[in-house]
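Cast an eye over this sequence plus tokens and explain the fold to me:
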Amino acid sequence: MQGSRAAARYAKALLSLAKDKDVTKEVNEDMSLISNTIKNSSDLQAFLKSPVVKNTMKKNALSEIFRSVNGVTSGLFSILIENNRLDILPLIAKEYNRLFDEMNGVQVAKVTTAIPLTPALEAKIQQKVKELTGHEAKIENIVDESIIGGFILRVGDIQYNGSVSSQLTNLRRELQNNTYVAKI
């Protein structure tokens, strides 16, 4: 992904600055807010990427939209505008969240399901993840209808595939290798 290396460097520098000022948690909340706001607004995405819109206008808009953010976060806006890198702000926000979680020992459990998770299922998955790894994890739900049913759980290096499509593939493979069924 274009800009991801630069985003990682900015996020590391931001985390370092936030540590020095003892505001890592506040900046993490700001980065979550920024990431979600930009992700959910195609107009804001287009506005930030537009070469026609002047940088002062972008800075004013960000200051107005994210009024309640920490001073460290608003300083990031200024640096990104000065370096003409405002387009990677969402990547920086995501990377900062990841680095913050890593620093605090929080893992991300990616759960792929055919339908969105309910809060009850999310709680069961959280319990299973804690049982497998011994740590809590943030649940990230990915909806993929092609798995038909069941789920695929990824936590760090561990992957458990309990999807219906995987079971059907395994069954098909077993039936193809069975000499009695193959002759029919």
Q: What stands out?
A: Residues 107-179 form one domain.
